[in-house]
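Closing statement on the magnesium ion sub-project.
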Amino acid sequence: MSSADFLIQGIIRAFELIFSLNPYILSITGVSIKVSGTATILATFTAILLAFAISFLNFRGKQALVTLINTGMGLPPVFVGLFVFLMIVPVGPLGFLDIVYTREAMILAQYILITPIITGICLASIKAVPQSIIETVHTLGGTQKDAVIETLKEARFGMITAILAGFGRALAEVGAILIVGGNIAYTGSVGGIGEGLSKTRTLTTAITSETSKGDISTSIALGIILISLVLSVNILANYFQRTD
Amino acid sequence: MAFGNKEVLRNINFEIKEGEIFALIGPSGTGKTTFLRILNFLEKPIKGEIKYNGMKTPGVLDTRRRMSLLFQTPAIFNKSVFENVAYGLKVRGIEKKIVEKKVNEALNIVGLAGMENQNARTLSGGEAQRMAFARAIVYDPEILLLDEPTANLDPANVTKIEEIIKRIRNERRTTIVLATHNIPQVRRIADRVGILLNGELIEVNSKDGIFSKPKDARSEAFLKGEMIY
Ligand SMILES: Nc1ncnc2c1ncn2[C@@H]1O[C@H](COP(=O)(O)OP(=O)(O)OP(=O)(O)O)[C@@H](O)[C@H]1O
Ligand SMILES: [Mg+2]
């Protein structure tokens, strides 16, 4: 079999797996969306609070917080994974939670990873609201509160972009969830491929393990789904950026 | 008034009368915008006070709500034309029905009726300026501060805005302070004129007075267009 044949066979089989709604693939996709989606929702609440506080309130340690967020935006996922892992192992400070190799641990790691990203982009879009908009609110008789509300409204598309960027980053990330989640599938093969349904196995971690096992068509199927998801998120983000 | 250690306005002392159109003229960079911003509490003078109706001001918000300032380059909210114009009424907690009536009135006045639902960011430069004008007059301010309200408009729209200014003053007795370097416009609509030169008010006079026998030689030079700037 030539290498081209090998690839074509792989791709054909990959589409078969996707369109037959293979349970192994579906469960992996489901875990990916659930884990990254939950992390994104939690991170969004935190990020909006942080961005609001930093933009409109004065408190001690504000500059330190901004520095922390800026540093956090560039954290390598494996580092976050290692950090969370050390926290949640039985002897660690969060050992009592007993969440090693669970989806909760993965959500925690991704939450730490993307909260600074969402906060940072929210902050930038709030900052990008021109001073003249705020002055116009005052000129037209608005209060300080009206000015804050208007600023947030003007920044709304930037904030949506921030949330989508966070979700995209979480979906595509592999290092952190691999360490704290362990890429576990339940035993017992389903649909003829892989092992059992996914426990903590996501699109990205499954691609690494299926590829090293040599199951190329499964990897390709997972890759197609991953890239479609990430692409859709980016298209959506682009749409909101243009609406701005 | 100063920005940093750059003094921008000094020794300004004059009165603007209720219901008049007061034109503040002077070359570019002379402090006209800064002066209007002080009247609207957007800048704080180092020294001095402003009395509205001869009273000490009862509070920034209350006083501000009796006037409005139209910026030289209006800032536009990313909302519909209707929502932009309605803004001043909404922050005052005005009832919805009245808001609708007032906004429609204001849009009619500036000739933008029918464009309520368009996103205001997509308006042309002239339309945006007229929308900002509607937004500034919609809540019937007692004092209207206009900073170059016709600078970006074509002649037809200039005439329209000038007519609106006169009409508002005549119908509502609104006091209008108009900053401009358009001298023909001053001739057309002002009652009294103040000439601001390098941050100093060199002359305040009636329109007829300032054009026929100015008190200051520099006023004459500026009005004749001989001022170098
Ligand atoms: N925020 C600021 N910081 C520093 N300097 C400023 C600031 N705002 C205005 N100035 C300066 O104050 C002076 C007066 O400016 P102002 O905008 O009041 O002039 P103007 O008479 O309105 O001019 P124009 O006719 O060009 O609009 C200018 O020299 C300007 O550079
Ligand atoms: Mg100006």
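Chain B has two domains: 1-66+142-229, 76-140. With this model delivered, the sub-project is considered complete and its resources will be redirected to Aim 3.
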